[in-house]
Amino acid sequence: MLSVLLVMGLVLLIPAGLLLLIARHGTLRHDPGFLATVLLAAAGIVVGVLFKIQHWEGANGLLLGGAVGLALTYGWWFARKTPKTALDVLKLVFVLSCSLNAAAINFSALTNAAGRLRTLSFWALALYFLYLTYGRSLGANRR
């Protein structure tokens, strides 16, 4: 039983740690206005999911509002950013897939496909970030 809990904890902590590492290296944290707006939209999604779990009214509106707010805010941030890299595009795809997944919770037929897209975009972002941050420097040291 303990080994199952340990594995489940690692399954949750590894992606969360990778997201925190990516956020720490990002430039969004240097603009408090956009950061607060993005976090507010993400909080709307989290509260919407909690409302959905409890079967409370307003859950669909919170989920949809948070998803649209997150997509629009981060999309605006991406449009303003001048040097766009492949990593920036992967971040945008991940944020948009998270928004799509939050909005798709209301439609059971789309939930599985949106979840798969979110997972795929997360791992593409995480692996590319790890390669850019740590992988290239390891390869350069071997030569």
- Label the overall shape: globular
Q: Span from first to last CA?
A: 46 Å
Overall helicity: over 70%
Oligomer category: single chain
Number of strands: 0
Total number of helical segments?
5
Sheet with the most strands, sense and barrel status: none
User: What is the percentage of strand-forming residues?
Assistant: under 5%
Structural class: mainly alpha
Round the mean pLDDT to the nearest integer and report it.
88
Low-confidence stretches: none
The helix-strand sequence is: HHHHH
Q: Give the C-alpha Rg.
A: 17 Å
Give a structural overview.
- The structure is a single chain.
- The chain is built from five helices and no strands.
- The chain has helices spanning 2-25, 32-54, 59-80, 86-104, 108-142.
- The protein is mainly alpha-helical.
Defining key terms:
mainly alpha; globular; 143 residues
Describe the secondary-structure layout.
Blueprint: H1 2-25, H2 32-54, H3 59-80, H4 86-104, H5 108-142
Helix pairs in contact: 2-3, 3-4, 4-5
Task: Offer a quick outline of the entry.
The chain is an all-alpha fold and 143 residues long.
